Amino acid sequence: MATEILIKHKDSDMTKKGFYGFSWTYLFFGFFVPLFRGELGVGALHIVFAIFSFGISNIIFAFIYNKQFMERQLVSGWVLAGSTDENNLAKAALKIV
Fold it and tell me: d(Cα 89, Cα 97) in Å, to the nearest integer?
């Protein structure tokens, strides 16, 4: 099950929810998850994967999507904004040094 952590943009101080762990949402809703999170390019790519794999890719992406999403957010200027313990758990799960 996905664990929620707050993330904050360094420049704008905007906060939003980030997730790590298994994504039940992705398992059931597939490529709609990246589309709803504003990742249109990723969503389009996942549509292609779903079509060519007859939906089997949704099972695989349910295990890795949240980690990939968080990595993209952290690279693009977002930082973990939870408590120290929450941040340490997220760093361990995401394998961030």
Answer: 12
Phi, psi values for residue 9, rounded to 5°: -80, 135
- Quick: pLDDT tens for 4-63: 999 999 999 899 999 999 999 999 999 999 999 999 999 999 999 999 999 999 999 999
- Contact assessment for residue 20 and residue 66, using Cβ atoms and an 8 Å cutoff: yes
Cα(1)–Cα(63) distance, rounded to whole angstroms?
Answer: 10
Q: Running DSSP on this structure, what letter comes out for residue 66?
A: H
Termini Cα distance of the chain: 23
CB 28 within 8 A of CB 16: no
**Of 2, 10, 1, residue with least CA distance to 80:** 10
